[in-house]
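Journal club prep — side note

Before the paper discussion, L.F. wants everyone to see what a predicted structure for a comparable chain looks like in C-alpha cell form. Sequence:
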Amino acid sequence: MTIDATEQARLVRAGEASASELVEDAIERLERLNPQLNAVIHPLFDQSRAAAAGELPDGPFRGVPYLVKDFSCYMAGVPVHEGMRAVRDAGYVADHDMLMTQRLRRAGLVILGRTNAPELGILPTTEPVAYGPTHNPWDLGSSPGGSSGGSAAAVAAGIVAAAHANDGGGSIRIPASHCGLVGLKPSRARVSLAPDFGDVFCGLVIDLALTRSVRDTAGILDVMHGPAPGDPYAAPPPGRSYIEEVGADPGRLRIGLMTAPAGGQFETDPECVAAAEGAAALLEQLGHDVERSHPSELDDPEQIANFLVRWTAGVDWSLKYWSAAIGRELGAADVEPCTWALAEQGRTHSAGDLLLAIEHAQASSRRVASWWADDGFDLLLTPTCAEPPPRLGEFDAPPDNPVAPILRSIPFATFTAPFNTTGQPAISLPLHMTANGLPVGVQLVAAYGRE
C-alpha cells in the first residue's frame, strides 16, 4: 500500500474503509513479503484482528495498522528480546504496556507485531544471530540499516505505512536513509520512556517512528510527545501541534551545509555528497540561504571518545538489565562477540570516567548549540550517512577482531551520532537515489526543541 497513515485514517473516518479491512490487507502483505524480508519477528494477527473488530479509540490514527520495534515499546504479554538469543530462549515476555505503547493505542493504531533489530540495538544494520538478517526491499542483498531496520523494511515494502523506531546514534535516521523513508529523531526527552526508564544511555536514546510522509511523522509526534510524572527532565512543549507546522511558511532560513565527516576522518561517498548538495540547491531555489558552515565543535576528536565511554557503559548496563530480567547472569557465550567486547570495554571505565564523559558532552553540546543560538543559523544540512546502503554481511565480526563491526559502523553514524550527544532534533529525508537505484537520505538538524 502506497498511501500514508494519515490518508488511511481519513478513509476510516469517512467510512470508505474499515479498520478490519486495513488490517486484513496489511496481514496479507506481511504474510506475502515477510518471508523475503524477515522484517517482522513477532506477528500478532489474532490480537490485531480483535482490536480492529472492537471499539477502537477515536484517535487521529483510528484503525491504521502499525508495527513496533522489538526494542522498548513494551506490550503486556508480548515477547521483547532486543535481538538477544538468551532472552529469546528464556521465553521472556513483557508484563505491562509502556506509556508510549498506551499512547499509540489511544491514537487508534492497531499493532500487528514487533520488528527485527540487531542485538541491543548496537549496529547500524539489522543482522542479529537470534533472528537472522532483515533485507532491504530496494535490494534484498543490501542492509536496511539499523537498529530500526525491521521497521524500516516493513514500511518501505508497504506492509504498513508507519512503524515505531528509536535512535541512540542514528537508529531511526540510518534506516530511513537506506530505505527511502522519513525518520525524525526528536529532541531529547520529547518522548517519555515511562514507566521503565528515566533516560537510556545517559540520554542518548529517543523513540519515535519511521514513516512514508512528513505529515505522518508530525502526527505520530503529536501522539507520542509529552512528559510523564517523575521524568528526570522534559523537552519544552511546542507552541502548537506538529501537524499544524507541516506546510507552514518558515520564512527565509539560514542553512549551513556540511558534506565532509567531522575532522576529515575519511571521504564521503560521492552519492551522499550529491544528495546533500542537491538538497542545498533545492533549498536555495525555495528562497533560503545556504552556505558552507558547521559547528566547529563537531571537529573535536574527543566527541567520539566520550560517546563511546557512555555507549560502552550502556552496553554493560544492558547486560545487567537483561540478566536481572531473565534471572541469570549473561556471559560471553550468551551474546554476540561485538556485544561482549563492548561490554568489557564499558567495565574498564570508572564511575568517574562516566561522569567526566557526561560533563564533556554537556559542555560540548553548549558549544555546538551556539552555532544556532549565536551564529544565527536555523538548520544544518548533511548527508544522513557517508555511504549508501552496504551489503549484508559487511558487519560480521572475524574471530580475531570482535569490534570490527563498530569500526565498519563509523561511516554510517558519523553525521547522526553527534546529535544524540547534543539532544537536538534531526530528520532524514528521502531526496536522492544512487545510480544503481538505492535510496540515500539527507539530514536536517535544528536547534534543541525546534522540531
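L.F.'s comment for the group: The chain has a mean pLDDT of 97. Keep this in mind when we get to the figures.
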